[in-house]
Amino acid sequence: MSLLEVSDLSVAYGDLVAVRQVSFAVDEGAVFVLLGANGAGKTTILRAISGLVPARSGRIFADGRDLQGSAPNQVARAGIAHVPEGRQIFANLSVGDNLSVSYLAERTEAPMTAALDAVFQLFPRLAERRRQLGGTLSGGEQQMLAIGRALMNFPKLLMLDEPSLGLSPVLADLVFERLATIRALGTTILLVEQNATCLELATDGIILANGEVALAGGRDSLRDSEFVRRAYLGI
Ligand SMILES: Nc1ncnc2c1ncn2[C@@H]1O[C@H](COP(=O)(O)OP(=O)(O)OP(=O)(O)O)[C@@H](O)[C@H]1O
Ligand SMILES: [Mg+2]
Fold this sequence. Notes:
Rossmann fold
């Protein structure tokens, strides 16, 4: 069984059906990408998995466990971490406090200091800025902090909503490179992006259009698809 299985998921906001009958499975060790244009329904899918919006229909299983009706804190305790769109770090807390308030003692046997050490090893820049207020970090540093916060609980599955948005190409590459390291250390990744350069890192994924799956497949078939070439590369 896959680490995450989403079947026939539909989500609506009132009369607007934002996600329609979407199915996909994320295997352990994968970097699974959800690619799609603005409004395609990417954020809605992550929010449904995290229990932040209710599904209208469909099933979500994580690690063999039915997540239906689970509250966001229960999903986090099940080992699923969500780096939200727009980062949403605490502007008035220090970098260190942003990280420590995210630690759930009951989620892991590792002490908080071990979690902090692991994050600082991955992002030394955050260690240097441990006492700086979150709101004064640069955009790239804030993204590192948002990812670091999600890693404080040693998740099985790390979900990220457009981590490269608003970053320079160099910083976006740095974030993708860190995601490759996180995967190599054993965390499965579900990556939402509009930026097709994330396909370099991907194992497989889906392309979403208007709330529906337009294409599903391995990295190469997504990269070579007409959809990606036209929509993302302009050729
Ligand atoms: N809270 C809400 N209430 C009503 N409609 C919403 C709400 N959130 C999202 N939508 C609508 O649902 C659709 C999908 O939105 P969603 O945010 O999931 O797209 P997205 O793929 O993440 O887009 P983007 O790349 O711009 O972040 C859009 O048409 C959006 O307007
Ligand atoms: Mg979005």
